[in-house]
Each structure stands twice: as C-alpha cells, then as structure tokens.
Amino acid sequence: MTSDRARYDRATAHLDAPLAIVDLDAFDANADDLVRRAGGKPVRVASKSVRCRALLERVLERPGFAGIMSYTLAESLWLARSGFEDVLLAYPSADRAGFGELAHDAKLAAAVTVLVDDPAQLDLIEGARGGGAEEVRVCLELDTALHLLGGRFRVGARRSPLREPAQLAALARTVQERPGFRVVGLMAYEGHIAGVGDDLAGRPLRSRVIRLMQATARRELAERRAEAVRAVRAVVPDLEFVNGGGTGSVAETAAEDAVTEIAAGSGLYVPRLFDNNTSFRGRPAALFAQPVVRRPGVGVVTVLGGGYPASGAAGADRLPVPYLPAGLRYDPQEGAGEVQTPLLGSAADDLLIGDRVWFRHAKAGELCERFDTLHLVEGDRVTATAPTYRGEGRTFL
C-alpha cells in the first residue's frame, strides 16, 4: 500500500485535490477476475457502479463482457444514443417522456429493454406512447428474497412482487398478449447474497450466521429460479436472456444452468463494502484524495471535505474510509464532514499542509456523483482524464 500511495502522489502531483482517480491496472485486473469467476457466461456491466462512459466502453471492449445494466430510463436512452447497443434497464420507470421517445425511435427500441413486474407499468408505457408504434422490449423480474418461518421472516431487498414461477408466467402471457410489447428476458438480483459481506471483522458469530443464511438462500433461489425460467419459457420459448447475480456471487450464480448471463459492476472499482466478502479479493481501483489543510495538534490533521456517505441504511459502514496513508481514522465526534474532516492517528504526524489523504468510497459508482472527472492512472502517470456522468451534465438520480 505504501508503494501505491507513492505512485498515486507522483501521478497526480500536478493536480490540485480534491480529485478522484481510477487505477487502470487494478481496474483491468478486476475485470479479468469477474470474467474468470463467470466461467464462460457473459458479464453485463452495471452502469450505476461505473458512471463513466469511457470506462464502460473500456470494459465492454474486453472479452467476456456484453451489454449494460442501467438504472434509469433517461440514462438508458442516452447510452443507446451514444452507441451502446444492448442496454437493460434494471428498475421500473415512470418516465413518460422517455417511454414516448422509446416508442418513436426504432434504434432506441431495439437497443433498450425495460423492466416490468406489474401490469400497471404496461398501462403507463402504453399511455405514454403518444402514437409511437415501436415494439417495447420487456424484461420480467423475479423476487429473490429468502422467506423463512412460513414467510414471517424475510431476508433480501424488497424489489419485485413476482415471487412464484406461476406469477412470472402469468405476467409473461399478459405482456405477450398486448400489442407492442415483447418479453425478451428475465432477471433476478440476489443482493442479500451478492452484496452482503460474510466475514465481518471482530464479529465471528454474526459472520457465521450470514454464511449460513447465504448458503440457504442460494439453494432456495437456484431451485426457484430454475422453475421460474421453465415457466416463462413455456410462454416465451425464444427468451433471449436470464440475468442473475452480482459482484459477490458471480461464480455461484454462473454455476446455475438456468442463468445465461451475470450482472456485475462494483467488482471493477472494489469499494470498501466488499472488504468483508470471502468470495473474491479484488484490488481497490477507484479512490479520491482530499488535501490536508490543518494540523490542529499532535496525532491529528484536517482534510478539506470528505463527507460523502453512501446510500442504504445509515451507519459507519456507509462512510468512505481513509486508506492511504494507513492508520488514520475519523474523530467519532465529527466523522466525515461536509467541509472539513479531522483524521486521527500516528500517521497524521507525518503529513504536512498540502499533502493528500487517499480515501475509498463505501460504494462504487456513487463516488462519481461527487467528481466531474476521473484521472486514469497507469503506473505512476495519469494517462487520460475521463468525464463522469456528472461531468457530462448527466445526473440521473
């Protein structure tokens, strides 16, 4: 890590902090690891975890990657207009203007697939057509949550209402019977398996419980997903894809015969939330630097800004973590501040005004909502600078 800090400092010495970088050597190594774990099944890149067109293009040029999983309809249309030819919108939308554009443009309609898990969403899309006659490609979503004790206890995100294979098949029939719509895919995101660490530092009992839960959830979901795919294929024999998984469950999900492609994105940047995951060990690739602006006393420095919490249930695990130099920690009375952040630890005494502290964000792409550009580092040089979505004036959520 010491050598990484020296590299990053040298590479960005001509730049003023705050700034954000992506280490391309680490990024490419992480991409290779995702492909290896996918075992020959294509990896669809989750754009919300990248939020930079140049890096989406870079990873999609690599063997083993195919298609984008987007997070809003406006983003999906923008990416399709930019030349990305296979964009799966992984969340339902109420963007009537966007659906109107989709229904009027043959290129967009061919490139973008939208998510539906309720007939009411079909009604909304139909009402937004405004005379547009292009066929809308539809993906259905299976609820992946683990239900225990007869459904009284639930583990997993509250996403699709479609849990049973018969429900998926019924909606597939509804879609197929409506002119202007066609089912082309099925997706299921097991976030409680793919995105929850199973080796929590200092909490061996909780880690064991999580591993037991995840093993149970994997078995239950694999069986139910296979049944759901069979049920939907009975209605739609030419189903194009079945998407599953996430960064933390690539190998396990890819092993299911019913799954044809894997979704992953965070594994390219490897944010701190994956440090407690035993299924893989990636290299931190996305970092941001804050400059030291004060030295209030022995064992403490203050950096500019840094209060970039991640989404999700509020907690310490949603904060960025001081990464380089090692040994710094937050002041528990202040935490990560909006304008300034005190950092404690013996490493602080070696830092001077103007030096930089490198942080890792808790989640992946959310870092890009704070910075206009990513400086792309190879070795100890910045070889390119790429705009983030924000840098291109695109703030979709």
Give a structural overview.
The chain is an alpha/beta fold and 397 residues long. It has helices at residues 2-11, 24-38, 53-60, 73-81, 96-104, 106-111, 119-128, 165-177, 191-194, 204-235, 250-254, 266-269; strands at 19-23, 43-46, 65-70, 87-89, 112-116, 136-141, 146-148, 153-155, 181-188, 241-244, 261-264, 286-297, 300-304, 321-324, 329-330, 340-344, 356-360, 373-378, 381-387. Strands 1, 12, 13, 14, 15, 16, 17, 18 and 19 form a nine-stranded mixed sheet that branches.
A few lines on this structure:
It is built from 12 helices and 19 strands.
What do the pLDDT scores average to? 92
Shape call: globular
Helical segment tally? 12
Fraction of residues in helix? 25-40%
Strand content: 15-25%
Low-pLDDT residue intervals, each spanning 5 or more residues:
none
| CA-CA gap between termini | 34 Å
